[in-house]
Amino acid sequence: MQSPVWQGCGVICVGIWIGMTFFRGGFWRLRERLRVGPGFAASKVVVAAVIPARDEAGLIERAVESLRKQRFTGTLRITVADDESSDGTGARALGAGADRVIRVGTRPAGWKGKLWAVSEGVGAEEDSAEYFLLTDADIEYVSDGLLEALLAKQREGFDLVSVMVRLCCESAAEQFLIPAFVFFFFMLYPPGWVARKRGVAAAAGGCMLIRRETLERLGGIGSFRDALIDDCALAGRVKAVGGRVWLGISELEIRSIRPYEHWAEIRMMIARAAFSQLRHSAWLLAGTVAGLLLTYVMPVALLFSGDRVAAGLGAAAWLMSAAIFLPTVRYYGAPRWTVFALPAIACFYLFATVESAVNYWTGRGGAWKGRVQDELR
Q1: For site-directed labelling of 214, which of 38, 86, 162, 339 has its Cα 20 to 30 A away?
Q2: What pLDDT shows up at residue 377?
Q3: Measured between alpha carbons, how far is residue 141 from residues 71, 150, 228 in Å?
Q4: Candidates 2.40.30.170, 3.40.630.30, 3.90.550.10, 3.10.180.10; correct CATH number of 29-260?
Q5: What predicted TM-score, i.e. pTM, was given to this entire model?
Q6: Low-confidence residues of the chain, pLDDT below 50?
């Protein structure tokens, strides 16, 4: 039995995925990639790597050692900002080759913990550093040419170069959920659009190379001290002062070594910042819920509508979503069948987003290693 309502929903669903496929900057193609850079004289270049770390004894050594092994003719200084660790993180960092470990001081009011640690690390560096590499304690620079590749990309005219590192994708939970994390992120912030001088601003916090001059011009880390999603905030500040941002993945191996073995760990990772991304707005949350249901769940629901036209449109929308999700699934080596699970994966992310709002409203927003980072205002 035909139903104009179901058919109308089907037309909308197909229209959404046509828009995603052809009019969203080709985000799903993963075309923006960091590649081996052309050789250039780097003997006088000074890069200061700053790693904020809080109770990261299990990961910090691999992160520091991988930086120390970089093939780089310039000067690389590695500073670890030990943020009140109680597990010997600082000693392990020094043993792995860090140039210095600073103990982060008492965090002033209005600062997020990670940003205060980064600010302390940046402040401890000498004025001779031309670039800052802002990276995390769980990032391993496997390829030894990554630093040169980052500098080569920067010399194409970008003030901030950021790489979405390859996240862990080994456990069943990771293989099911992690590729979608990258897919959704690039959908929100198409890298092709980010590279434009104006407009969309985003970065991936695991690996960001920024000019010292640019960081000083935008007012330093303190200019976005209260940002929970600090990487995108930094990108926004760079563009606000007329700078350019590059965001993409890397053909050279750079990866996060922080595992997410259980579904709950990934859910908490999403819930930590999702509601902050929505600016703590109940209206934006409601719109997000409606949008996700229409975009991902409705095509499947149409298959059971009893209307052949609507079912055909639903199937077409579902297949289109699977087709453009495939490159990300292949990049992560996840099972190919998971492309058809995108509606279920979207529901998982939707649940985590609602949980993020509940956590915020109950005073538990952004909880991370004993700190509530997204406090109710």
Answers
A1: 38
A2: 67
A3: 11, 12, 25
A4: 3.90.550.10
A5: 0.94
A6: none
